[in-house]
Write a structure and sequence with these properties.
OB fold (Dihydrolipoamide Acetyltransferase, E2P); alpha+beta; 5-stranded antiparallel beta sheet; single chain
Length: 179
Amino acid sequence: MSRSGRKIKKYEIILCILVLAVIAAGLLLPKTGNLVLLDELCNAAVIWIACICVIARALRNRTALSLSGKAVGAAVVIICIAFVFWFSKDIVLDLAAGLQTATLTDVQVSETQAHTGIFSHHYYLTGSDHNGETIRAEITMEEYNRLPQGGTVTIEYYEHTRRIVKVYKKDMVADNEMW
């Protein structure tokens, strides 16, 4: 068996370590609280890093390609840029709009289990706001165990990413006590 002769470059190792660090940070950050947008940013950062690697690879090889190869490379770059903007738009919109407050009635909490690994349990809060719009957002296991079914709560959340910063019981909102 022959070796290809291609060695792993330092920047490739650094990018792999960076991706693993961002993924680990995203797994360790809380699902609710003041750092929820940082968690969303970690998710988007993985996409950004992967797309930057693909774009760099496409641009680096552009001189050795035929015209059709260059067209494919340009299409890959455009698709990667669109992909990055698609995954980043909600975070940018939430940073611009800031926190929203909503009082949810007929609150339901639910648990789902994905088909993958250790981090497969997700807990959700679902309720209707005063406009009748249904809001569904991820919560922590502790909040899942504490929140009443069918009750009323007030939440501070980011509208576009549907990430909750604080959950208040209806009667505690005036006292500004977090539940």
